Every structure is written in structure tokens, then in C-alpha cells.
Amino acid sequence: MQILELEQKYSELKSDLGGQQSKRTKLLKISEYFGFALSVPLTNANLIEPFIIDLIPDFIKYSSDLEIRGLNPQKIELLKDQLIQLKNLNLNGIESLECDRVIQSLENKIQVMNNWLISVKALEHKPKIYFPLLEKYGDDLGSGYLETVNVVIERGEQKFNISPSGLENDEQLEKQIQLCFEKALEYCSRYIRKIKKTHTVYIHFENRLGILTGNSLGAALALFFIEALLKHYNSQTILNVNKTIAITGGIDHDSRIIATSKTIIGAKIETVFYSDVEIMCVPKIDEMWAEEKLKELQIEYPKRNLKIIGLTDLNDLLDRRQIVDIRKQKLIIRGGKFVRKNWISAVATILLALFFAYLFVIDFDNNPAILTTDGTTLFVKNRNGKILWTKFVDIVKSDINSENPYSRDARIIDINGDGKNEVLLTREIDKKINGVKDYSLLSCYDKNGEVIWKYSFRDNVESKREILNNDYSIYIIDTLSIDGITNLFLRSSNINSFASAIFKIDLHTSKRLPGTFWCSGHIADVILKDIDSDGKAEVLGMGYDNGYEDAVFFVFEIDTLTLARPTTNEYLLDNFLSSEMKTYIRLPKTDYEKFAKVRTPTLTSGTLRDDIKNKKYKFAIFNPFNRQNELFGYEIDHNLNDIDITITSGFRVARDSLVAHEILNPPYTDTDAYKNIIISNIQYWKDGKWINRKELIKNE
């Protein structure tokens, strides 16, 4: 790469970033530039530093604030990978801890997006109305995103106050707003006896920061206006939505929803596809194109459940009960609103203030919906963020957040389907008994923080080398319905020795269910998945084997027998049958890890994930000298045979330095030759014996 070419692209980017556009578009432009700049060989890191260092703070900030709705997950993955690359460059001014925080945030957002793409709702899921917008930059359509607005109507002169303020000079937008408000007034006259001639309307666009194309927010905006007018006049009738919906299409003077084009509607369907929207409303004429685009996207993500509804006009939208719910509001709420608007005296004002403080300010929602922690206290909150109750815990702060519904330490779950959530909690501290920590205990609390049941894992096992004590940790995996019983899968690891187990209990009663899978080595991560589409889920896990002193990836079928994973004779647990493994793979230490004199490769919980798009299971091996930094990643194909390796720049620098000083043998790290060495040392369990990759291919 020529330095002049890098300098030219840098100048072009700096000029581009000065334009009016959203932070996300700026982020993607910086990312595109980094993709070019970071292709410079690492030996020239000092050469590229002047051309990237001033962009890194914005890159980190924009990545941290990233709104992922409407964004292809590949781009989120790329941002994460580039942050890791930047961190590993060790340039001056890069805060390692801040990079780690943003990398973890992007990992969480990737998991959220993956859940959306298999139509899994978040625990705090709340129905909402969006409209997709396509950001325009130059002559091209850029990244699409989902917008929503807050509308407040007050008494006063006829005026529309729009924020951000830069939107007030958008003539096309102003005309559409005026027309939509007229149509909303016309519709609301059915439910409101006396509508004033003028109103002051405040419209706040939550996300809109850049230059946008089209006026297709009209139908959605009319819906927002109707909702706000009914609320302003305290109408007996109110409008709500039951699902998360998106609407596109402007409206004309006859209330008809205006068609767009095949290109525009396709881009908007793609935007909505990468989100948690359940129903997408489009102009009736565009419905065929929308369905065509949806089928195209579902080839890659077949479980994404998005319903397309074609609409002819505004009344068609308002008459669809699967989209909007128009009904009478509760009398006490309506009466409270009326009293608030019509007080007469100071005494009445005081009394009403007390009344409304009780009726409206106090949050009566006592249903757990959000978990957060500062590391020592677990905060159980309702969906509005109000703290309902707390527990003392010993949990890493990053392990629990609102974007990760699959925490191993605490989980919100409705155990009996009554709509009231319960909380599962491990690693709790008993302050009443001098801060005793019982890591083997799992507690289930009701919505009020009262104990429903407690379960403690205290199994006794032994091997030829030792009799193990029964001091175990316990972690949550997931739930699975088997024969009408909701099985809660858990894993436990012996705190003082090598044994670990995957087992299950009845979620409702905490009764231990038949079937335990024992491992001679700790388990790092577990996924439940039906890998062969036979209607029965398997258990996929990664962890260690103390006998072989390797990292392992394994898959077994759920059974009611107590079985043990094969290992060496010394570490084989007594009195258990050996499991018929569906897949069992040993991942030996590299020469770098042997140089570090570690017993096994370094794994970290929370890294195993199912990359549905690329049909791979992925996890990372970490640096034994710095457990925050990855060495390389394993990518195991869904066929459970083919394995690929992804080398990080940090590993390349560290190992290549040792090779250059003749401490380790060639080849250099980021080469196919070195990757093949790692892959050739991988062992597969087949027919009761271990074979290497070459033998595996030969036997297939």
C-alpha cells in the first residue's frame, strides 16, 4: 500500500465526516476506512498511526452508542473485530478498558440481534410503533434505521414545534405533517365532541440526525397524532398497539397511502428485517415487492418471523385490530385526567396534587423485568426501571445487563406462565451469617423477592486419583420442555478439584430430574440446540479435560441415565457408564501456550456462540499472560467436523516475536502453514478412539 493512497483516503474521509449525517453513518464510513488502513502490515503500525489515531475516539464513542435496529449483523461483527484490532495495536491514546467495555457491548448487541433474527422477544419487550427511514448521503441510499416520535399536544396557536430543530426547514416534511394532523383531527372527531381550531404540537424525532429521503412517514405520523389527540382531550376512546410494528407510506389528501418504488420498499423491508418488529405495514401496491424481498432475506434467516400487511388508506390501517387496538379507557384513569385539568381553588390544587402523586407518580408495576448489578448487589427492577427489591451477590458486573437475557448467574423467567415473572439467582451472599457465600445454591424468588424454592448441588463422586468433596458452584444454562415438564438445565463445577456436571431440575418444583452428564474438567459454556432437526435438542459445550490437559468441544444427546464423558483412566469418575458422544473434539495447546507453561488452553465463559448466519459454532482461546486478550478463535462448522482458525493480530505479534528470536520454531503465525499445524493436532473421538483430521477425512 502506498502512503499517498492512504493519505488521500484519509483526507476524503475527513471531508465526508464534516457533512450533515447520522452518527451511525459516520461510524460506518470510519469502519470502511479502517478496513483499508488496517490492512497495512503490522510492522508498519507506526506508519498508519497518524492516519487513524484521531478517528479512534469517535469510532469508540459511536460504537458504544450504536443503535442496531436496521443494521445488518455482519456490520456489527466487523465493528467488533476492528475494535479488537485497534486495541491490539497498543497505540498511544487507546484506553484498553474502554475498548473492552465497547467490545462486550457489541457482543451483547450481536446476541440481541441474533435473538431478533430467530424471533425471540426480549424479557422487557414493549410494543412500539416505528417507521423505517433511509438516510441519504450524496446520490446514494445509506444505512436504514427505525425511527419513532414523541408527540405532545397543548392548547395554543396552530403551530408545529419539531425537534431536532434542523428539521423545521424541511418543506416536504412540513407539508406531510400538516396533512397528517388534518386527517387525525378528522378521524378523532368521531370520539371527541368539541375539538378546538388550533393546537400547539410538539414533535420530537428520537433518532433522526442526518439527511433523509422521502416523506413516507405520513401513515405512521397520523397514527401518532390520533393517539396524542385522544390523550389530550381525555377521550373515552384510546389507541394502543399490541405488537411492535413498523409503517411506511405517505398519505395524500384522500387519506390514501402512497406507494414508493421497488428499490425503496426493498431497502425498507431489509431495514425492518434486522430488528424486533413483528408486523410491517406497506402500501398495498408495494406489498408484492415487500413479500419478494422478505423471502429473499429469509433464505439466510428462515426463523425470522415478520408479517407483511398491505394497506390502501388510513382507515384500512385503523380498522386492523392486529395492528392497533382502539378501545375505551378505564373510568378511574379518565376521571383522574379530567380532574387534573379542571381544578378551581388552591385547596383543590393541593388535594389533586396528592391524588395524582398517588395515582400516577407511584409506579404500581411490581413485575420483575430488568436485572442489573454493581457487583455486590443485584437490583431487580420493573420495566420502567423502578427497583422492586435487591439481593447481596458476588457477580461480575458485566455478566448481567439488560441486553443479555441469558446470564449464567441470574435470570428472569415466568416459571408457570401466569404473566408474573420470577427470578433465578446464584452466587448469593448471606449477610445474616457473616457474609457466607454458597456458590452451590440456586434460589427461585417470586415477584416480591420471597423464596419459592432453593436447590443446592452436593453430589459425591470419586476417581482413582481422589475422592472429591461436594463443594460445587452452580450456573444457569437454559430451559427445555420435555414430556410436558419444563426442565431447567444447570451446570456445576467442583470448586476445589476437576469434576463438573450438566444436570436438570423441574423448574416449577426444583425436583432433580433423571440424567446427569459428568465431565473430568470444568465446563465453560453450554448451548441447548436441536442440531439434527429430529425434534430433540442436544447439549453442546466447551471446556477442559484434566486427563488429556486439552480444551474440548463436545455434543451429547439428552438422556435419563447418569453418564460420564470419556477421559484418561486416572481421571475417569467411578461407577458411571461412558457416554456415547455425538461429537467430542480435543483442542490441544499450541507451541505458544506450551511456552507459557500452562496446563490447558485458556477459555473464558460467555464466548461460545452459535453463528446461525455462517452456520458455525465459535469460541476463543485467550492469552495465558493476559486473559483479557484473545489469541485465536475456533470456528466449528455446523456439520461438527470442519474447523477453521481465526488468528488475532495480538497473537501474531507475540508469537512472531518469539519465532524471530528463535525461541519458537517457524512458520510465522498468520499463515496457512501454522493454522494447519493447529488443525492437524486436533483430535476427534470416533468409535471409541482418538483420530486426527487426516484420519477423519479418510474414514468419511
Descriptive overview:
About 1% of the residues have low confidence. 29% of the residues lie in helices and 28% in strands. Helix 4 packs across helix 6. Strand 20 and strand 21 form a beta hairpin. The protein has 17 helices and 35 strands. Among the domains are: 115 residues, no CATH class; 201 residues, Ribosomal Protein S5, domain 2, CATH 3.30.230; 93 residues, Thrombin, subunit H. With 700 residues, it is an alpha+beta fold. The strands form nine sheets. Strands 20-21-22-23-27-28 form a six-stranded mixed sheet, with no helix packed on it. Strands 24-25-26-29-34-35 form a six-stranded antiparallel sheet.
Keywords:
700 residues, alpha+beta, Ribosomal Protein S5, domain 2, Thrombin, subunit H, 6-stranded mixed β-sheet, 6-stranded antiparallel β-sheet, 17 helices, 28% strand, globular
